Amino acid sequence: MIYLTADVHSEIKGNWEQKKARNSELDSAKRYLEILKKYKIRSTLFVNGICLEKHPSKIETLLKFDTELGGHTYNNFGNMNIFKSYINRKLFGCVYGSKNFQKKDIFKTKKTFERFGLKMKCWRTHAFASNDETFKILKSAGVTHVSDLLGEQKPFEREGIIHMPINIPVDQNTIAYGMLRPENRDPFASCTKGRIKPEEWFEILKKRVAENEKKKIPSVLLIHPLTMETLDNFRLFERIAKFLSKYKSGKITEFKV
User: Fold this and answer.
1) Sorting pLDDT into bands at 50, 70 and 90, what band is 166?
2) CATH of 2-254, one of 1.10.10.10, 3.20.20.370, 3.30.420.40, 3.30.310.180
């Protein structure tokens, strides 16, 4: 069983992929879903709340596909910078910030979903920057499934939240875009570090998914639409989708412990 997820942002300061891409991340997400439709793959998109407010017609287009939308903070923590990130980690133990800020941001995102006629049942914190307080707030907001953890773990439930760890190496944190260096060729440093060629990453993805299937472990993947567009205009993603199509797929909130 595979659970394919994607993160869709409004704007990230200094993001070179957004600068290089011709269209917005919502446009990339549409092309991404068109490919998934071709191969009959179901998915979950984690979307910034501000996208629902500022681009309702594009969100409506995404909802025509076999996907579900989950929360991904309102706008990537607002005006985040290196100094603020450091202070938040120092004072609150995570980049997301204080309990009060997190609560305000989560419920603000939830309200954008509700105004759109949607229930925000699943969540991924931008940059996986959550802590235990985040999960408590999410539970109080009615969220049932969270996908913030990385590594070779099975999904599990803790204190009323079902956690869906990403157990396949993430695309944009694993693929090398520039010159490869010998010291950066470890493909499985944590699951998010290492810099390898796209083809190598794809081979690892296939191997990991096949191994999970044999062990009857759900594969939770994060593949970014914008990364796939920037890499090679979705050519690699088409091949990935074709490979994944031989497995049963589901949406994050359909998983039960």
Assistant:
1) very high
2) 3.20.20.370
Determine the Cα–Cα distance for residues 80 and 190; give it in Å rounded to an integer: 25
Per-residue pLDDT at 194: 53
For 108-156, write each residue's pLDDT tens digit: 999 999 999 999 999 999 999 999 999 999 999 999 999 999 888 899 9
Q: Which residue ranges make up each domain of the chain?
A: 2-254
Instruction: Taking the CA atoms of 197, 201, 207 and 211 in sequence, report the sign of the dihedral they define.
Output: positive
Give the per-residue SS3 of the chain.
CEEEEEEECCCCCCCHHHHHCCCCHHHHHHHHHHHHHHCCCCEEEEECHHHHHHCHHHHHHHCCCCEEEEECCCCCCCCCCHHHHHHHHHHHCCCCCCHHHHHHHHHHHHHHHHHCCCCCCEECCHHHCCCHHHHHHHHHCCCCEECCCECCCCCEEECCEEECCECCCCHHHHECCCCCCHHHCCCCECCCECCECHHHHHHHHHHHHHHHHHCCCCEEEECCHHHHHHHHCCHHHHHHHHHHCCCCECCHHHCCC
